[in-house]
Amino acid sequence: MTRPPLTNMQTRDVEALLHPYTNPATLRAEGPFIVSRAEGLHVFDAEGRRYLEGMSGLWCCGLGFGDAELIETAREQLGRLPYYHLFAGRSHEPAIELAERIKELAPGAARVFYQSSGSEANETQIKLVWYFNNARGKPQKKKIISRAKAYHGVTIVSASLTGLPYNHRDFDLPVDRILHTATPHAWRGAEPGEDERAYAARLARELDALIEREGPDTVAAFIAEPVMGAGGVIVPPEGYFEEISAVLARHDVLLIADEVICGFGRTGQWFGHQTLGFKPNAISMAKQLTAGYAPLSAVAIDAEMAAAVEDNASRIGVFGHGFTYGGHPLGCAVGAKALEIYQRRDIPGHVRRIAPLFQARLRALADHPLVGEARGLGLLGALELAPDKSGRAAFEPAGKVGARMAAELQARGVILRAMGDVIGFCPPMIIDEDGIEELFAPIPDALDATLAWARAEGLMR
């Protein structure tokens, strides 16, 4: 695949920007992919070529691109109240309306607190957990358990929660008080003959042993994505959260659901924890909270946490946490409209109706020799590329085959994300049968081309 010379816009970009999650050397050689506009399921590059955006941007544009209602809501809000804050008892209608809508949709939510990103939401979660345990007289109960391959953000503590090595290397992370337990990936982790239930029970025993080893009086919370996103769209084994929740309850350990990717219909219910059958004490949300149209995140906590936090803040005299843009009126107005649209158009119902076709097309690719596992839930999916189907082998070096596959797909008009050698799927939730056909039609050819390249490179027989 030969590369054309860099355009003027690409050269300007390389000289001006430091790109997240990008190899700078590759960027200098190949230039950035410039997106000029978007509409519906599609984005268009600077030369006008059209691509189906199979990742909803970064897991967030659940209503696709160019939704007229969201655009008009943003325009009206900017004309009415372009900025205000929630400090010192100030408030505004969009913040109140959105919090009420979140409480309506999230069972058990008692209070809502706003930030601008999922990273900030999870950073806030940990501060609230520490504050909560101080408030109830348990100052030693501060350790947080996350999982290998989890993704919870990039701020100092949220990046420590993230269980991906490149988020830690040379950033002096993770910080202390952060622990990691096993990734719940049966294809990779289950023993021969061990079914999903038995595997889930074993993971719960390992978690229990970790808590006992650390001391239950020192462990405060367990944080989990219902379906792990950036770690490879990993769907937990049957019974996993049932087993895990019992361990946490026994040790008085809070359960935080990171719903930044799964929330607001992506799995066919309002939240992923509803689809997977567990009850968290707190929920982090972002991305589809505003359908990606404005930066906003939120944390929802249950009544016990809310009462302890508010009582403690009253004793101190102030709740000493907050962000300049937390509860920004633009984000809140767009978020309230997005949630209203999700309800009015029954987006979770649409996901439940269309997901069987999406999952069938995804799993039909499992027999290809380059695909180790095809997996997914709702409108989330992944193809794990591997040298065989055993679940024990991986490409060396990691990431080259996935990157090639993503490039082959982009050349065929489909944008998906390579996470190492896993190809992730997260199309806008408005996708229909024709969109699913457009998404999957070029994939077999792209797999064949990638397989031929991998064999030529000596990466696979």
Notes on the protein architecture:
The structure is a single chain. The chain has 461 residues and is an alpha/beta fold. The chain has 2 domains: 144 residues, Alpha-Beta Complex (Aspartate Aminotransferase, domain 1); 276 residues, Type I PLP-dependent aspartate aminotransferase-like (Major domain) (Aspartate Aminotransferase, domain 2, 3-Layer(aba) Sandwich). The chain is 41% helix and 15% strand. It is built from 17 helices and 15 strands. It has a 7-stranded mixed beta sheet with strand order 4-10-9-8-7-5-6, sandwiched between helices. The chain has a 4-stranded mixed beta sheet with strand order 1-2-3-13. Strands 11-12-15-14 form a 4-stranded antiparallel beta sheet, with helices on one face. β11 and β12 form a beta hairpin. The longest helix has 19 residues.
In short:
By secondary structure, the chain is α/β, with parallel strands linked by helices. It is built from 17 helices and 15 strands.
CATH architecture term of the largest domain: 3-Layer(aba) Sandwich
Report the average pLDDT across residues: 97
Could you give me the name of the CATH homologous superfamily of the largest domain?
Type I PLP-dependent aspartate aminotransferase-like (Major domain)
Counting DSSP H or I runs of 4 or more residues, the number of helices is 17
